[in-house]
Amino acid sequence: MLIYIFFGFFCCAASSLSFGITAVRMLKLPLDKGETVALGYVAGSALVSTLTLMLGLIGAIAAPVFVAIAFLSILILWKHRKWFSGLANTSIRFPFVISIILSATLIFYGILYVRLALSPEISPDATVYHLGLVNLWANRGRIYRIADIYAAMPEGVEMLFLLAFTIGRHSAASLVHLSFLIDLPLLMLLYGRRFGWTCFASAFAAILVFASPLFGTFGTVAYVDVALACTVFATLYLLEIWRRNGDAGYLVLCGLTAGFALATKYTAAPLPVLAGAIIVWKSGRDGWRKAAKAASILLCAILFVSGPYFLRNWAWFHNPIAPFGNAIFPNPWFHVSLERLYVAGQVPRSGARWWRYFLGLTVGNSLFDSSLGAAFLLIPLGLAGLIWRQSRMLTFAALLLGLAWLTNKDPRFLMPAAPAAAMALGFALSRMPGSKTALCALAVLHIVISSRAFMDYTHFRPVFQWRISPTWRESLRLTPQSEYLGRNPEYVMAQHIEALVPAKEPVLAFTGGAAQSYTTRRIIVCWTSAYGERMADLLFSKWHSPHDRRERFSFRVPPVAVTKIRIVQEGADDSLMWNVDEVELHADGKLLAPSRGWQLNAVPNPWDVPAAFDGNLATRWRSWDSLRPGMFIRTDFLKAVKLDSVEVVLDNREWTTLEDGTWAAHVSLDVLTGDGRELHLNPAVTWDMPIDLRKDATAALKANGIHYVLINQSDWVQHEFRDHPEAWNMRAIATTSVATLYQLE
C-alpha cells in the first residue's frame, strides 16, 4: 500500500517537474536553479493537468498510461541534466538566528505535514467530491459527464489527483497537494531574494504561511486551496519578473499558471484580469500593437489550460460557466433555484460584527472551524505595502483576491490572498527600526501558538478537527487502513453500499452520508443537480399526501375547435414555486391521453413538462424558479380538438414547510380556437380529497432508475421515511450511527 502511495505521488510530481523544466528551457528563460524548479513545478502542473484532462476525455485513464508518462518525463529530466547544471546557482544566505527559526519551522512542520498527508484520507470535501469524482472517473477509465454542481466546476488540481489516485489511491493525491504547500515557502523566499528584499521579510512571510493552522490543515488533505494559493503566488512572481525585463517567455509561463488558477476555482478569476490589466498598462506605453501582442500571448496561454473546461461545460451542460449562469444559459441539468440556493448558502455567517470575523479568521472563535493563525492579527499593517513599489503589486493583489471571501465566508477563500498579504506585511515591518528582532520574535510566537501541542494545552479552537489525529503507525499503514477509517460512519456506509448495491446502480441521498471516494456506486446528493432535485421531490412532495388536499382549477371550454391552450400563472412570491401535479384534458366526457400530436412546452423548465400530463399524481412539474407572473404551460394540437374542460391540479407545498402552502399561484387559461379567436377563461376552484401517494412516489423513483435511498438522521422530515418505511415500500438494508440505506421494493 505505502509503495503504491509514494509511487503514485512520484509519477505525478516527476511529470509536473519535467514538463515545467522543459517549458522553462524551451522559452529560454534566464532563471536560476531554484526558480526553475519552484516555478517550473507549478507551470508543469498546469500542463500535466491539461494533458490528464485530454486523456480522460478520450478514455485513456489507466495506471500504465500514467506510468509511461512518468517514465518519459524522467528520461526528459535526465536529458536536461547538463543544461540544468549550467544554470546559475540559487544562493540564499540567512543570518544565523533567522536561519535556525526557518529551518526548525520547515523541519518540524514538514514532518508533521507528511504524517498527516500519508494518513488515510477522510476529510469531508475530499471524500465527497474532490476525490469522489476522481474515484468514479478512475473506476470507469474515462472522464464522463456527471450532472453535479461540483463535476461542472473546473477541476485543474483534481486532474493531478486523478493521475496520482489511479496509481496510489487517496493518500497519493494528498501528497500531491502537500507538494504545493512545500513549494509555496520556497517561492516566497526566492521572490524576496530576486527582488532585493531583506531575508528577514521573506522568511517571516514564509513562516507565517507554512506554519499557519489553516494551510497546515487543508494542505495535507486532497483539497485544492493550497495548490491555488501556490499557483496564484507563482503567477504574481512571473508577472513581476516580466515587469522588470519584458521577456515574452515569462508571459507564456504566467498565462499557464494564471489559467491553472482559473481551472482550479472560479474565484481565481480576478487573477487573470489583474495580470491582463498590468500587462496592457505597461505594454501600452510602447504602443497599442505591442500591448495587443502581449495580451494575446497571455490570453492564449490562459485559455490553453482553462479553456477546455468552458468548452466541456458547453458540450455537456449547454452552459460554459456551469453550474452558474443558468438563467443566461437555461439547461435541464441545473435549476436556477439550485444555483441561487447554493450561492446564498455560501455566506451563512451573516450578522456578526466585523471584529468577530477578524478574530475568527486569525485567532479563532465559534464563527469558524479554522483560522490563519494569531500572527495574522497584524495583517492590516500590510496595507502599508501600497506605499513602496517593491510591495505594491502584492498588496493590491492580496486585496483583490481577498474579495472572494465576501462570496463565501469560509477562511479557505482567503488562502489565495494570504501569501501575498504575508509578504506585504513582512516588507512593511522590515522598514521599521529594530525590525529584525521584531520579525524573529513574531515568527517564533507564531510557530509556538500554531503548534498542535499549544492549541491542545490552551484549548484554542483554530483548527478544524475532522479527523482523529493519526499516529505514524496509522500513516505508515502498520495499523490497517480499514481499522482507522472504520471509525468514520461515512466510510462504513460507503463500504455497505459497495457490498450491497449492484454495480452501476446509483444511490439517492438527501444530504450525503457516504464517502463517494470509497465506493464506485454513484451517490446522487439531491441538492446538487436537477435530476437529484426531481428525484427527491417525488418523496418530499408526497410525505404529507395522506392528509393534505390539493387545489383543482376547472376551466369550462366552449364547444369550439381548439388548436392551442396555455395555462398562465399570475401570482408572485420569491419563496414559492409553481407546482402542477397534473393537467387533465376532457373531451366528450372522457379524459384524453397525451398524443404524439401534442406539442408540450413550459416557461420556465420546459424539460419536465411531460410530468404534468402523465396521468400520475405522484409526479409533478415544477417551475424550479420563484413564482412570478407570466409563467405558463402550453399545449399545441397539430389537429384541432374539441374540449369539454381543462383541469389543473396544484400543490403549493414546498420542501421546507410543515404546514399547508399559501396557495399563491393564480391560474387562468388562454385558448386559441380553430378560427383564430383567443379566449381568456377563469377557473372554478375546488379541493380534492387527500390520497396516499407514498408508494406511487417510490414506484416513480424506480421508473427513473433509483432503487436505493440513503437517509441521514439529520435530514429534513427524516422521521416520515425512517419511522414508516413500509408506507413507502422501502426496506432498510444497512445502517450506521448517522444514516440508513433503504432498498425500494
Q: How would you describe the overall organization of this protein?
A:
There is one protein chain. The chain is of the alpha+beta class and 745 residues long. It has three domains: 2-89 and 117-458, no CATH class; 489-539 and 695-744, no CATH class; 549-689, Immunoglobulin-like, CATH 2.60.40. The protein has 27 helices and 16 strands. The strands form three sheets. Strands 3, 5, 6, 8, 10 and 13 form a six-stranded antiparallel sheet that branches. α1 packs across α9 and α14 (270-283) packs antiparallel against α15. The chain is elongated, with a radius of gyration of 29 Å.
Q: Indicate the structural class.
A: alpha+beta
Low-confidence stretches: none
What is the rounded distance between the termini? 39 Å
Could you tell me the mean pLDDT?
93
